[in-house]
Design goal:
Mean pLDDT: 85
Distance between the termini: 54 Å
Number of helices: 4
Helix content: 25-40%
Number of strands: 7
Order of helices and strands: EEEHEHEHEEH
Shape: globular
Number of domains: 1
């Protein structure tokens, strides 16, 4: 069956959203997508054409409570490794707060990044906060390979986006 650090079997479905799929031992189905998001950063095509929004969606689950499952974390890490090994891709993960759980999502995502030692494995994560005029706020993280030759421009593009977005309205 595999220990807790063994990823679940992953199926790459492909398509324009670079979709991956897996089922857990608890019969929970997940889709992990890397949706093209060239429009997010107002950057040169060399950067913008490689920006993808990371979406993790639970698409199927049985009734009742589901026990914690550390293998999900390792499976998502294996999917990210596969995706980043294909090109000089940049993933953006937006911690949606529309249901009031944005901070919890951010803590969990940050914890995954540290726990899996992504930095030690050659990745960078840059965080930025965005604030709406109505008081709603959310955070976003960019993840990319440390060796990306455009990393300074990537970081600058995110900072400039935040500066424009967070101007007093």
């Amino acid at each position: 069956m595999g220990n807790s650090q063994t990823p679940y079997q992953i199926e790459f479905l492909g398509g324009k959203d670079n979709v991956y799929f897996f089922f857990t031992k608890f019969k929970v189905g997940y889709l992990v997508k890397f949706k093209p998001s060239f429009y997010v950063l107002d950057a040169e095509p060399a950067i913008a054409d490689h920006v993808y929004e990371l979406v993790i969606a639970q698409i199927e689950k049985p009734e009742g409570p589901i026990p914690p499952d550390e293998r999900i974390l390792y499976t998502i890490a294996a999917i990210a490794e596969d995706f980043f090994n294909k090109e000089q891709n940049i993933a953006i993960y937006v911690c949606d707060d529309s249901d009031g759980r944005g901070r919890a999502r951010k803590r969990k995502f940050d914890g995954w990044f540290v726990y899996l030692n992504f930095e030690g494995r050659g990745y960078m994560k840059i965080d930025q906060g965005f604030h709406e005029a109505d008081g709603f706020s959310y955070s976003a993280s960019l993840i990319f390979k440390s060796e990306n030759r455009l990393k300074i421009q990537i970081i600058t593009a995110l900072d400039e986006l935040a500066d424009r977005y967070n101007q007093p309205k």
